[in-house]
Amino acid sequence: MKSVGSSIRRREDPALLTGRSRFTADLTSETLAVAFVRSPVARGIITGVEAPPETLVFTSEDLTGVGSIEPVLHRPDYVRIPQPLLARGRVNFVGEPVAVVVAGSRARAEDLAEQTFVDIEMEEPMLGAEVAYSAVRTHPGSVSNVVVEGAMSTGDVDRCFAEAAEVVEISIRSRRQNAFPLEARGAVATFDPVDGRITLHASTQMPHVLRTAIADLVDMPESDLRVVAPAVGGGFGQKMALPSEYAVLVWLARHLESSVSWIEDRRENFMSSFHSRDQTYVVRAAFDAGGRMQALDGDLACDVGAYSCFPVTWGVEPLMAMGELPGPYDVQHYRVRSIGVTTNTCPMSPYRGVSRPVLTLAMERLMDVAARRMGMDPLELRRANLVSTFPYRSATGVVYDEGSYVQSMDEAARHVDLTGFRARQEVLRREGRCIGIGFSVFSERTGYGTPTFAARSMEITPGYEVVDLSMDPSGRVELRIGASPHGQGLVTTLSQLVADELGLEPVDVRVIHGDTDRTPYGWGTFASRSMVICGGASQLAAQAMAGRIRSIAGSMLEASPADIVLDGGKAVVAGTDQGAAIGDIARLAHHQSHRLEPGAEPGLHARASYDPAGTFSNACHVAVVEVDVETGHVTVERFVVVEDAGLLVNPMIVDGQIAGGVTQGIANALFEEIVYDQSGNILTTSLLDYLPPTVSEIPAIEIHHLETITDASITGAKGLGEGGTIGAPAAVLNAISDALSHLGVEVFEMPATPERVRAAIRRAEEVVRG
Questions:
Q1: Count: domains in the chain
Q2: DSSP label at 71?
Q3: How far apart are CA 762 and CA 770, in angstroms?
Q4: Most-buried pick from 128, 268, 304, 569 (CB within 10 A)?
């Protein structure tokens, strides 16, 4: 019986739900505690650090021989600016670590850190993408505040605009966010007095990359450092970047020859953990009289913070926005300019979806505005422009594999009964209530390997995954992977893939991950890649092992290996009752290797790698909202998703990923925002100010599936981990604009807080009054 396609329960959950799983903070006993002294100002020159007497405190001057974080992008427009592990000479954002205090307990370390003062000559901070071309530099001595600048043009954009029946221009603003993982960052560096080796337990998405980076920074052999990711309470991209604090911990453990730990509190996480998506777009489109988009032109600006994140650099947001702005729409005349601007704010890193929630918002708001301007139905306008012939090569040269863009939109419209909704909308408007519906159609580039990352010119080029598979003499299987899951259910889904190939049950497959000593080198878990790439490698390894089992079974049963079927824990000759338990075959392979064919390797082992170009999943999201015109409050009444992610290995886990992503997308649309004042002080450092949604704000999410099987993925599966976050904001903002369309209100900024929505209504009322 095959398990792929079945909603079997997640194997990870019993330990998590009963409290038996161990997170980084559970490992801090018998360690010295570390607390960081952080800059209270956004910009200035350090003139001194004053600590209480007998405090064990270290500054950058003590970290002799330690390097700076300086990821590299091989582009002529890329500006390299090194980031010291502890601020050296000057500070560049509120929350930047300046010194580190070590004490016997966490409470004592935090008390001493609070009593340690940093003397700083304050300077005026550089804030906002508008400082792009300022004569004053965020980092004195750097060549520019624009640290990456991409541009491209295809076709004849100017001619298309000159001949257009309608030109539509909109401006989009996405305010800054924090990924807000339930578990903040933390690490424990354990010193082994026997060999001086360090084991770093850390909340991370990329254990192998973290080990390489830290070993390089502190100048130690990589083999002397083991990195282990225990249970990780959410990452969402914030934990794929290298934190300077983790490298400091390893240095301290070596320097003190002792074990040290640091657990970040929520205030530190808001101040100093990587932010995301502070972006402004101006987008123009040229349409012909029939509603076909002839050309697209965009000016995109991304505030990327004070330093470049390792390893993907501060080019990740602006360059992704540049390359993927057209999304699922067929437009070959395309011009775009996209810049990353460094400011005196917390550095940025990828957050679930990276720039795609913003670029999807831009395109989907553009479609609705254009439809209203041209007197067309918004879905008809989309239908005229969505890619429908595959494979499709975009204006940027990217090849889209088979998808269902039009079909997903039509299916979503059917599920929400659009005609019935419009009738209800008119009735409620006469009663003074404002409800609206918003559609968002998008594609999600997933599972892309080295070929795609190499095109970005990164010094460190991720992509491939390697797995090791072995079967012990009892017939149980161990799969060791370089990917490092943090809540996605990957252990369950990979065990389903491997079990089906070997004729076993998923419980017979143990998945080992998150330990650099026990797993092959891999890139971790990010970018909706794990099922496509790690799953592909796992399936290849399982197929190789299955072939070996069939070969041994054929010899045992005097049959052709091609006639051997693996099922139910047995190897059976097809059409007969002759067979052998797979456990018996495994025991023979290990304990009676003399019975194997000459030259055969004892045991049962397989190793495989996979490095695909990538695939595209797609979806349509529909939000139904009600807006209180007196307060600006928005209630999400209904949310419908039609998702096409190819083969669904475990539909229950798929639905969980979609629901979680949609929740974060609604948060992006309505609630979550990191706010700085004009002096660069961060104002949102607690849950009193930063507003993640609760179950009270999120409706039941209705999920429906299409299943376009692709040749671009060995498993037939497409990634989907970021899709919920990508599509939801546009659906919500389109719904708000639809609800208020009779008032002449359009919403182009997220989060659409009550204050902003009410302000938009007041502006529309002032226009009516003249």
A1: 3
A2: -
A3: 12
A4: 304
Beta carbons of 523 and 311 less than 8 angstroms apart: no
- Whichever domain contains 98, its CATH number is 3.90.1170.50
Closest C-alpha among 488, 6, 75 to residue 315: 75
Burial class (CB in 10 A: 0-12, 13-18, 19+), 100: buried
Q: Is residue 134 part of a domain?
A: no
List the end-to-end C-alpha distance of the chain, in Å, as a whole number: 71
Coil vs helix vs strand at 665: helix
What distance in Å separates the CA atoms of residue 661 and residue 285, rounded to the nearest whole number? 29
Contact 154, 334 (CB under 8 A): yes
Q: Could you tell me if 655 and 572 lie in one domain?
A: no
- The mean predicted confidence, pLDDT, of the chain is 97
Angle at 407 between CA 406 and CA 413, to 5 degrees: 90
Both tokens of residue 678? 């004009």
333-362 pLDDT, tens per residue?
A: 999 999 999 999 999 999 999 999 999 999
**Degrees, nearest 5: CA angle 233-238-239:** 60
Domain final residue, candidates 575, 610, 645: 610
Number of Cβ within a 10 Å radius of residue 154 = 16
Q: Hey, what amino acid is at 731?
A: A
Dihedral sign for Cα atoms in the order 596, 600, 603, 606: negative
Please give the pLDDT value at position 1: 64
Residue 445 lies in a domain: yes
Indicate if 294 and 441 belong to the same structural domain: yes
Cα gap 583→615, rounded to integer Å: 37
Which residue from 660, 448, 430 is spatially nearest to 533, judged by alpha carbons?
448
707 part of a folded domain: yes
Distance CA 739, CA 734 (A): 9
CA distance 585 to 552: 7
- Give the amino acid at 162: A
CATH classification of the domain holding 588: 3.30.365.10
Asked if the structure places residue 209 within a domain, the reply is no
Sign of the CA dihedral 501, 503, 507, 508? negative
Letter string b/e over residues 163-194, b meaning 16 or more CB atoms within 10 A of that residue's CB? ebeebbebebebbbbbbbbebbbbbbbbbeee
Same domain, 438 and 538: no
Residue that terminates a domain, selected from 97, 123, 149? 123
Is the domain of 420 the same as that of 280?
yes
DSSP string over 422-491? HHHHHHHHHTT-EEEEEEEEEEEEES--HHHHHTTTBSS----EEEEEEE-TTS-EEEEES---SSS-HH
d(CA 609, CA 613): 14
Do residue 472 and residue 438 come from a single domain? no
Residue with tokens 């497959």: 509
**pLDDT reading at 427 higher than 90:** yes
What is the spatial distance between Cα 719 and Cα 483, in angstroms, rounded to a whole number? 14
Domain range spanning residue 80? 31-123
User: For residue 167, what is the enclosing H or E element?
Assistant: strand 166-174
pLDDT in tens, 155-184: 999 999 999 999 999 999 999 999 999 999
Query: What's the token pair of residue 752?
Result: 């659409």
Residues 584, 620 within the same domain: no
Partners of residue 202 on adjacent β-strands: 187
* CA–CA distance, 129 with 341 (Å, rounded to integer): 6
